[in-house]
Amino acid sequence: MKSSRPFTIKRVGLVAGTLYVVGIATAILAKTEAPAATAATALNGGAIYLGEAVCIACHAPQNKQFTHTVHAAVFRQNPKNELQQKSCEACRGPGSNHLKNPTDPANRGSLVGFTKEWGTPVAQQTAMCLTCHQGGGQMFWPGSPHASNQLSCSDCHNPMAKISATGLLKKPSINETCYTCHQQQRAEFSKRSHMPVNEGKLSCVDCHNPHGTASNTLLKADSVNEVCYNCHTEKRGPFLWEHAPVRDNCLTCHNAHGSNHDKLLQVARPMLCQQCHTNAGGHQSDLYNAGQLVGAGGGVSSRVLGRSCQNCHSQIHGSNHPAGARFQR
């Protein structure tokens, strides 16, 4: 009968060698995954990162859309830190808990979702985006009107698909994205006199910063006038003779988005001027109206024809002429 000792020695050696290799692999895995697992503990119960390949194995259609985005280019070709190297999990969080039961709706909390149906709190969604997108234009996001109304980044942006030319917006353009909520402004841009937004010469972000500013209306300057002066530099002054409403606020006379009156005026001339100029003495005490227009049947007045008051007071925004106290030519 042959001895089984040589076989036993080989088997023991094989087992020992296997345990040694497994031990090394475990040590390497623990060394590489420990920082990520530690960072993820507070996010979803200590889950660990699995890698982009695991996500793509199930989510092939989403990967095709994602490949064309700026996020994909950064995460895959030029990641700035270890988190961005995680690609999908850089935004969604570590996916090991999700992989345990991926089809169970009750398991949605294992990943960060960027839709209202997913159920992830808005604050958590925003915090995930601000991990990379902080400072600069996003500096005033906390406390901004959009943040206060519980909007998340994904209400305006789609980070998984390239639908717009820039910004990964949910609509093809900036204006269409804003119109999703701001229907009144959309109607104003369709009025007779309007800012050239629909014509593509301006966009909402030329005047507003949707991510927050120091003003209540998300203006990109300290005041309405400073925003207007970016284009209307001839109205900035300083003037020898200043018109008080002009210096106070452009919106005293104009509607910023659109109006059915000439020059985006709040009220047609001369009624606009007569809201202030009604003191006794001189022609400004007379109440001019549409009945004095040609063909209206009343006594025609030259002061309601053409540009009305501005037929004479042409420099109504201010004058530097020594004789310009009345803002005349």
- Mind summarizing the main beta sheet? 2 strands, antiparallel
Unreliable stretches = 1-42
As a percent range, the share of strand residues is under 5%
Helix/strand/pairing category: mainly alpha
User: Into which percent range does the helicity of residues fall?
Assistant: 25-40%
**Average predicted confidence as pLDDT:** 84
Give the overall shape, derived from the CA principal axes.
Answer: elongated
Q: Give the spatial strand order of the biggest sheet.
A: 1-2
Overall number of strands: 2
Q: What's the Cα radius of gyration?
A: 33 Å
Listing every helix as H and every strand as E from the N terminus to the C terminus, the arrangement reads HHHHHHHHHHEHHEH
The separation of the N and C termini measures 126 Å
Report the total helices: 13
Could you explain the architecture of this structure?
The protein has 329 residues and is an all-alpha fold. Among the domains are: 124-220, no CATH class; 238-311, no CATH class. 34% of the residues lie in helices and 1% in strands. The chain has helices spanning 5-44, 52-58, 60-66, 70-77, 88-92, 96-100, 122-130, 145-148, 174-179, 183-188, 224-229, 244-248, 271-274, and strands at 193-194, 258-259. It has a two-stranded antiparallel ribbon. The chain is elongated, with a radius of gyration of 33 Å. Residues 1-42 have low confidence and may be disordered.
